[in-house]
Structures are given as structure tokens and as C-alpha cells.
Amino acid sequence: MKTIHDAAYTMAAVSATVALFRAVVKKGVLTRDEAVRALLDEAVARAIQAEASGDGQATNEINSQSAEILKFIAEKL
Length: 77
Prior knowledge:
There is one protein chain. By secondary structure, the chain is mainly alpha-helical. It has one domain (3-76). The protein is built from 3 helices and no strands. α2 (32-52) packs antiparallel against α3 (57-76). The chain is flat, with a radius of gyration of 14 Å. The termini are far apart. The mean pLDDT is 78.
């Protein structure tokens, strides 16, 4: 798969996740603070995992990107 496709799939996933969290917050299932805290906790966990794992550059890069995406989503809620 081409890099442009990877980026498009990632952006679609980010958009869907933001929409899902906004709907959950709007319905009152979670408060905004709880949703943001959950996303930021996961981002921190991914960042720690990326630093701790010595599996290889690709794994570290993926974990780092995951952490950045989660932080972005948390900011958009």
C-alpha cells in the first residue's frame, strides 16, 4: 500500500474516533474531562512503551505516532 493510502486511513480513523468521543460526551456517557483523561493516559502509555521497547525503529515510530494521534484527539474534544 502506498504511503498516501496509509495517511488517508489514519486520518479517517482519527475523524471517526473524534466523532465517536464527541457523541459519547454529548449523550452524557462520559464527561469531556473523563474522555480527555482517558485519551491522554493512553498517549502517555504509548509514549512510555515506545521509549522502553527496543524492538526496533519501526515499532518505536508507530508507538510515537500513536501517542501523537491520541494527544491530537484529546485536544479536539
